[in-house]
Amino acid sequence: MRLDRSLVRRLDALCAALRPAGVPLDAVAAELKDALDADRAAVFGFRASADDRVQLAMFHAVGMPGSAPRTLDEALALDPSWVFHPLRPAASERNRAVAFRSREVEPLRERVRALDHALTAQPWIGGEHQVRYLVCDGPDLLAWLGGFRGGRSAFGERAAAILRRIAPVLRDRLRLERDLGRGLLAFAALPAALEEVAAPAFLVSARGHVLHANGAGTAQLAGPGGRDVRAWLATRGHPAYRWTELRAPGLPPHFLVIGQRPPSRHAERAAACAREWGLTPRQAEVLAALARGASNKVAAAELGCGEPTVEFHVTALLAKAGCESRAALVARFWSEG
User: Are residue 25 and residue 174 in the same domain, yes or no?
Assistant: First the structure.
């Protein structure tokens, strides 16, 4: 169906505004309500919780009561698939504009009434004409997009054409936001993961710049041989370092670099620091573990004690070495002894 030119211009402007970092989705719902000549319009999506329950992930609507998000969550808790599968719809339902007359969704209303009679007080649950588009990326649902209308005429091909024009742009935006979120999560997890590596570990750019180092790596860079370490990392010129190439779309290659320092060197320096700082044998063992970059958890496992015990010894070490932080303690460890 051909849409009139003024509406096409409005929809094109909306699509342009829908680009990543564009207008909030509340504004999209408002524009959609007007374009569809609907009583209410919405964009919402779902996610799986840690205990595998389906929950509402986002809800942007115009003309809906303030209780609508809670109502959706309550309905999902009663039966997650009472309309369509909220995470992975059937293939026949994905990326299609579908209009329903109110009488066609009345069976849904009866089903909801059987679950919880109070939910049927919301007319948009099985009591109105509806047009929807399940915006999917492959089998995964990104968003429900559509509108509702009361006793007037049902939605037709015009409404379906409007949704078909908007949905692909919305899909691109939501897909990018999802992927960015996953990327940020992975980026946040990387430093924590590297801290569990006892050996010096670095994230290095293709040009040899150190972008991140774990505790052991930071200590190595701060030690007397730090300049040599930076040179090795810049030129990939030392066999003691293992290089793993990391690739991501649109980015130059980066490298995860993990190296080793001879264990005897740790023991040597720990013994020297123990003499100079007046450490107990156990404190010297904890100090050597910290110098290797071990976290409290790793050090406790290596030494066969609990994390609180390691924390107790770390506090004592900081006091005896006259340092305010673990990084300063490890830096002093490698500069003396």
Answer: yes
pTM score > 0.70 for this model?
A: no
> What is the rounded distance in angstroms from the CA atom of residue 27 to the CA atom of residue 145?
13
CB distance 330 to 317 below 8 Å: no
Q: How far apart are CA 102 and CA 92, in angstroms?
A: 21
DSSP 88: S
Half-sphere exposure of 73 (CA within 13 A, CB side): 13
Residue 88 shares a structural domain with residue 147: yes
- 90 pLDDT above the threshold of 70: yes
Mean confidence (pLDDT) of the chain: 80
Of 219, 249, 253, nearest to 236 (Cα)?
Answer: 253
pLDDT value of residue 116? 45
| Residues 78 and 150 grouped into a single domain | yes
Residue 304 is part of which domain span?
Answer: 263-335
List CB contacts of 144: < 8 A, sequence separation 6 or more: 42, 43, 44, 45, 132, 133, 134, 135
Helices (H), the chain: 5-17, 25-36, 68-78, 106-115, 157-195, 215-222, 226-235, 263-277, 281-291, 296-303, 307-321, 326-335
Token pair belonging to 296: 């409290």
Helix pair angle (215-222, 281-291), 10° resolution? 90
Over its C-alpha atoms, the chain yields an Rg (Å, rounded) of: 30
Per the DSSP assignment, residues forming a β-bridge with 40 are 148
324 pLDDT band, cuts 50/70/90, is: confident
116 plus 162 within the same structural domain: yes
- The reply to whether 19 and 120 lie within a common domain is yes
Map 171-215 to HEC letters: HHHHHHHHHHHHHHHHHHHHHHHHHCCCCCEEEEECCCCEEEECH
